[in-house]
Design a protein that fits this description.
About 65% of the residues lie in helices and about 0% in strands. By secondary structure, the chain is mostly helical. The chain has one domain (about 5-155). It is globular. The structure holds zinc ion (ZN).
Length: about 160
């Protein structure tokens, strides 16, 4: 996917996450969107830094980089939400282009999905929107369903 697609995906994802995390639609919702949007957009742009430094779709397109970025909020207390941008970048590259990613880098093999659309395709924007909608559905399921099930299971165990 190109930069336009990554930024579009990240902005829509951040707005959707704002409403999922603070659904009231009031000032807290917009504060959450502001809190989430810049980190997610920066995370969504970060992997393609390897076009200039490293090997594209290898050096910064792998689970090790995602793990390091995801560990920052835990160990250093910063870069919260950036991992979401990095993860969505990978998803969009897998579905919004034909070439794969070296997800297990430094193992060189590039993994791809059989139903990815080419970046230049007329369906690239539609794929970006579909990926965003799917990611928001997953996020909503995690935010709304997982905690309830954990509580329900804990209560059932009492
Ligand atoms: Zn990329």
């Amino acid at each position: 996917m190109n930069k336009k697609g990554h930024v579009l995906n990240a902005i829509l994802l951040a707005v959707g996450l704002g409403y999922i995390l603070e659904p009231a639609g009031d000032i807290r919702t917009f504060r959450t969107i502001a809190e989430v949007s810049i980190p997610v957009v920066l995370g969504a742009l970060f992997p393609d830094v390897d076009t200039a430094f490293g090997r594209h779709r290898k050096t910064l397109h792998n689970f090790l980089v995602l793990g390091v970025v995801a560990a920052y909020p835990i160990y250093f207390g910063n870069l919260r939400y950036v991992w979401i941008g990095v993860l969505t970048h990978y998803v969009l590259d897998l579905l919004g282009s034909k070439r794969g990613l070296a997800l297990l880098y430094p193992y060189e093999k590039e993994f791809s999905l059989p139903f990815g659309v080419a970046v230049s395709s007329d369906y690239a924007d539609a794929m970006t929107l579909a990926v965003t909608a799917f990611e928001l559905a997953v996020a909503a399921a995690i935010v709304y369903e997982v905690p309830q099930r954990v509580v329900a299971d804990a209560l059932a165990g009492i």
